[in-house]
Amino acid sequence: MSILGLTLFKNVSYLQFHADWISSINSSFSIRLDGLGQILCLLTAVAYPLVFISTWKTQYKKSHNFFALMLLMQAGLMGVFLAMDALLFYFFWELALIPAYFLCSQWGGERRIAVTFKFFIYTFTGSILMLVAIIYTYLQTPTHSFDISAFYNSSLNNSSASWVFWLMFIAFAIKLPVWPLHTWQPDTYEQSPTAVTMILSGVMAKMGVLGMIRWLMPVLHLSFYQWGDTVSTLAITGMIYASLIAIQQDDLKRLVAYSSMAHMGLMCATLFAETQSGMQGVMIQMFNHGINIIGLWIVIELIEREFGTRKISELSGLAHRSPAMAMLFVVVALANIGLPLTNGFIGEFLMFNGIFASAVTKYYIVFTVLAGITIILAAVYTLNMIRKVFYGETNSLTTAGYPLRLNEKMALAIIVVLVFVIGLYPRIFLNMTQETSEFILKKAGVGGLFGQ
Amino acid sequence: MNALLLTAVFGVIMMLSSFLLTSKTAIRGLAVSGMVIVLAANVLEMMGIVFFKIDTKDMIAFDRFSLLFNSIVFISTLVYFLLSARDMEKVGINYGEYFALIFFVLCGVTLSSSFHSLLILFLGIEIISIPLYILTGSDKRNLKSNEASLKYFLLGAFSTGLMLMGIALIYGATGTFSTNGITTSPTSALVIAGMLLLMFSMAFKVSAAPFHFWTPDVYDGAPTVFTSFMATIVKVAAFIAFMRLFNDEFGSLQSRWQLLIALITAITLFIGNITAVFQQSVKRMLAYSSISQAGFMMMAIFAMNADAREGLLLYSAAYCLATIGIFAVLMKLKDYSFDGFNAFAKQQPLLAATTTIFLLSLAGIPLTAGFLSKFWMIKAVAGTGKYLWLVIFAVLMAVVSVYYYFRVIQAMYFKEGDGQTIEASLPFKWTLVLLAGIIVLLGVFPNWIIYWLYF
Amino acid sequence: MSSVPMSHILFVSTALFFIGMYGLFTRRNMITMLMAIELILNSVNINFVVFNKYLYPDKLDGIFFTIFIITIAAAEAAVAIAIIINLYRSHRSIDVENASEMKW
Prior knowledge:
The structure holds three protein chains of three kinds.
Chain A (H helix, E strand, L loop, with lengths): L1 H9 L5 E7 L4 E6 L2 H20 L8 H20 L3 H22 L4 H29 L7 H5 L5 H18 L8 H8 L2 H23 L4 H6 L1 H21 L3 H20 L4 H32 L10 H4 L1 H15 L5 H14 L7 H27 L15 H19 L2 H18 L1 H5 L2
Chain B lengths: L1 H19 L3 H23 L17 H21 L10 H19 L4 H19 L6 H32 L14 H17 L8 H8 L2 H26 L4 H24 L4 H22 L2 H27 L11 H4 L1 H15 L5 H16 L3 H26 L12 H19 L2 H8 L1
Chain C lengths: L5 H21 L3 H25 L6 H31 L13
Helix pairs in contact in C: 1-2, 2-3
């Protein structure tokens, strides 16, 4: 816990640290906290206490190993968010993955070994392709350095830049996940222990977005522009696909998994629109999505533990017996679909605004409309789920009811407070992200290209 | 020069010790201290202190590269002695002779890593091979061991024949054995044919596809304790010889052999990895994994630049140490199948944890030496600017390799089972922990090796 | 006395080399296979000597190499015979087809 406290303090000031590491190939241990890193570190620092508080009472076999691996994963995540050196970034990327593999395989559900292995193979394939891309870009930099500022100046020609773009994009797309590279995701979220699922969906999926913002957009700006439409199409296809599947889902965990996929798809599509408001929206939405989905997982975990099932069809009328849980859950779920006054609204509004105002794509109206449809679909499955699970007649399973424990109340209350604070007063986050997104967009050359 | 003479001397001493010393502990102690002396002498030579000043008429060149490589080999052998020397007792009664043969092999390794003449290359390779034929068949009552030895001998002798023919043709074209590079008539048929024959014979020695087919049988049949030695130290020594040969002698013809080596690399990676996936025995899986690792090391031969040289050294260290560690644990088990590892973590948590680090290193996961060595290989090939498909193919194959390495980890940690009862002494465990520590440290600070290459 | 042209000798050595290869791959008797290997080595010896004699007569490099090859070949043969005897003890045969515990 003390580590978590320290990380919270670290966010206060811009932090920069630089040390020589492997000097023979010009790679250094260089980390810096910019607005993007700040918001994500804050998310990590908020998410971890929430996860630990909400699962306070859960008993793990060999709990010391469990918490050691969790904290190791946190170190990896923080490293990814802060690294300003491509090789270091790759190191932390893998460092976050390995503990996740062991956590899921050791403490997960019934089919955990096969499912986790699929997850691992997917991610590892992606990351090692990214490694090739990093090395290739490194060789094209004028100073032969892994530092990010050198990467900005790399002189890739157009065709090889396309290759490098796709190699890197695959790695990030697997993490998000973007359709059609998503197949690991619902299984893994379903089979992992809930605490790990929270981190996987709440924080780790953001690694992909961060990678796109920091390593893809400014470094390979031409390919980023060139392939923007293709990627947006993929992302939006994935959103619609995920939303449609979510409507059909009977399993709560899988439903949330697919809804998460739809949200991440929207972030990806917005990034490729390359606008200031969209960019800030993505950054804020990363934080929002992180805490909202953790809230959802907490309640689902409760339901599964107390009532022994995650099937929507077997649950009904929870609100009668456990009103506190129902109320908190509904707030988080509504925030998740972006109702005004909640944090989700701010993020989604900014993102839609961003897509619609996009200057880099001809199809901005199509994209906006299609993405808008998924919001409606999201409302459909979320409200449907709430109606079936929380309202209606109580059945034999749910008559017992369940009063929330203190720790669970605390975790959910923090989330709800955050939901409203950001929903009503988003200025803190807007200020935090403004500078970084301006900087990155400038690097991406949008301003120069279109005279904005 | 220090190491070359001392290894030969210790070979003779160990031979004598087999009938002068009756206690096995004494023989083992002598071997370990001999190894320490050889290592120390070699390190001293790196610092410029040479015990024996002998004019070799420029046939042997102890440069930094070969000295550093020799140090890596001696450290690996020392670790191997500490971990596995006890297991040699089970093979047969000739305990002292086994050490003697291993010292002779090391003498050959020293020669083949520092040759500057084709004659020395030939002698080095043969001094490595002949003791190995004996070690492979050293379990005299075991039929598999005998057969493995026969196969190894037949194919080894055949590849020696090819190598000699190659040397003869090169000699016919240039009139000299010293490897100063082909300068006269690089296009003559004699040179090309000789180069191809040498390439094929070296590919045999490093077990690169399509010349790999002896490897699984020989590694599987040989007593496990010697498989460990053959699959690691001998293999990387052959690679260094390969590298030196193609760097010094055929460096000017790079454009002619590069495509062929690229194809050999790709086939080796493909066959090694894909076949390893289907194995049921961990020992045989490690045999195929050694082929696939050979594929990665072939990338250094392909690229042949400064990165490749650094990378090959790093790769030798990473691969040797990790594989020796896994074999040392494997030897303690009775059942070599994947199921034999079930619930190993419950039985021996410390051994399981170290084995996991070795496997992660072989699979090339960051924070281990294995990752950085693969990284250097990729960088070397990407640095040539050509054949980018080879890099992408190689990393995809690395993903395949994750499959079979992680099968062992899955069995150890996540599968239910009785867990084989094994006895591991405390020093054995601590040596393994130390080894795992070295692998992780090298994975974070590769400069420790690279630094020595230049200063 | 006119000397034999180099190509003739090279022809002999090449023929020997390929006879040796053929023997190694077709024969199943271990002793014959060992002889085939010796044939290959001897063809190389002839090559070395003839190159030395005809092309580079001022030095004796090739001839020295030949001496090394003969020494190594003797060592190899000794090891090979030991392996073959060991197999014969268990199989009562020196046919490689009988040594098929492991599949290729």
